[in-house]
Structures are given as C-alpha cells and as structure tokens.
From TrEMBL:
Taxonomy of the source species: Bacteria, Bacillati, Bacillota, Clostridia, Eubacteriales
NCBIfam families for this protein: DegV
Pfam families: DegV
Keyword set includes Metal-binding: no
Function of the protein: May bind long-chain fatty acids, such as palmitate, and may play a role in lipid transport or fatty acid metabolism.
Record-given protein name: DegV domain-containing protein
Molecular function per GO: lipid binding
Amino acid sequence: MVKKRINKQVYIGITKEDYNMNTIITTDSSSDLPLEYVEKNNIQTLGLICHLEGQDYIDDFGKTLTYEEFYGKLRKGAMPTTSQINVYRFEDLFRKYVKEGKSIIHLSMSSKISGCYSSAIIAKKTIEEEIKGADITVIDTKSASIGEGILVYTAVEMLNGGASKEEIINWVEENKLKLHHWFIVEDLIHLKRGGRLSSAKANIGTLLQIKPLIYIDKEGNLQNLSNIRGRKKAIKSLMDKFEENIVDTENLVVGISHGDCLSDALYLKEMILEKYNVKKVLINHVGPVIASHTGAGMLSLCFIGKDRVI
C-alpha cells in the first residue's frame, strides 16, 4: 500500500523533491500501460520488436503499428514473430540518463519469458564500468503485460508522491511475487505455434471451444492451470481467481489487458466494481509482442494479493 506523506528530510543540501527528480523509472513495452499514462509521466521505455509480414515494428504502445492494424492482420491469418531488446539499446538508454546524473530503476519483464532482463544486466555492468558512480538498478519483475504495468504504475506514483529510490525498489521487491496474472486464451493456434500445445490438442480445443487458463508462477514462468469450456465460463474463472487471492481491495490497482476484445474487458471490470471498491482499474490492449504469442481474444486480469504459491 502506498501512503501519501509529508517528509521534510533533506539530502545533503537538496530537498527530497529535488532528490526524486534525480531518479527515473524505465521499463520495456511488455508493460502494456496506456500510452497516455506513459507519455504524461515521461516513462522511458524500450520497445521489443514485432516482425510482421516482412516488416519490423518497434512495439511502442500502438503509435507506429496501431492496435487496430495489428489485430486486423492477426485475424486475417498473419503469423508475427518477435525479438527481444538487444544490449546496445539498453546501453544507449542507461548511458543517456546516467550522464544526466540520474539514478535509474529499470523494471524488466520476467527473465523466464524473455531475454530482456539478461540484456539489461549486461548493459548495466557495461555502463557502470564506463561511467564512475553510475547508479542503475535492474529488477526482474517476474511479470509481464499489464501485471508488469501495475508495478511500473505504482513505482511511478510512488516517485511522484515523494518516495525515495530505496523505498521504490524495496516496494517492488516485496510485492512482485504478490502480483497475480491470470489469462484466458481464445486463439489456440498461436499457443500451438509457440510449442505450448500440440496440433491435436489445439484442433480439439478449438472444436470444443476450450479456453486455457494460464498464470505466471513464482519463478516467472507461464503455466497452464486448467482448460475451461466456453468463453463466459472462462471469463468467470478470472473473477474466481481474483476473489480467491485478493487481500486489500480499497487500495488495489487492477490491470485488465485484452487482445482487441474491449467489451469483454469492460464486462470483467463491471463484475469487479459491482462487488469491490478498488482504487484503480487500468485497461489496455495487449501489445503486439505478447499478442504474437497469445493471439486475438486473449483476456488477462492482474492484481496484487496473496503471495504466489505456485
């Protein structure tokens, strides 16, 4: 829980407000935050690469490759692939802000899902050797999509509210394994293509309208918990997992990301708000990099609750 507070502590001749101006939050495009929030808060992000129909697009929250264009191509049978952020792009980002005298907190998508965390660590070491006094913290959030986005959102809100770099880092480390990710997948073809389903299971599942319920475990891996028949039951299963794992709803930030199925996302939001007075509900598209592996129609629900036990 993030509390507003008055803190008159002075940091060697500078106010705490000035001190916070020297800290910057960076992340990758997997965080799937709404573009307007990213731009309003000047969150520095690096985009993963989506390879689609012979062209390469940087995932930049729908600016270059709009969500409508991407999902339109996906529904017409396009089979995109993705690439992680390379070390040199991380070096350029870190070098820029270290030279400006800033401390960097970089929140990375799960190291079990992408190599971005490893690349960021290599870049951090390079810049620390290159520039004396460089202050870079890279955190494996063990999260993805809007779940990762919740950690970024809260870190930014803490920074804007006057929290110190150390307080932000400690909060993320203490809460990242309390962050729940529950996904339902509509299009099984992309799971088959990624090796998560056999061709036979994908074909049978499609015929029987089976919707896999997927979660991120405490190691940061994607796991299949169960298979649910029918879209409505699958959406209800997300609500069930929410109710099983919530702790403090009054201060809860909920994230819902969707594979171009906004009506389902709004329906899920309505289900939550009918019963619980949560602090904030963030809704956004699943970006091209994640959606390349989950397909159109994916719906996720993310929130901080009990510790992940599986």
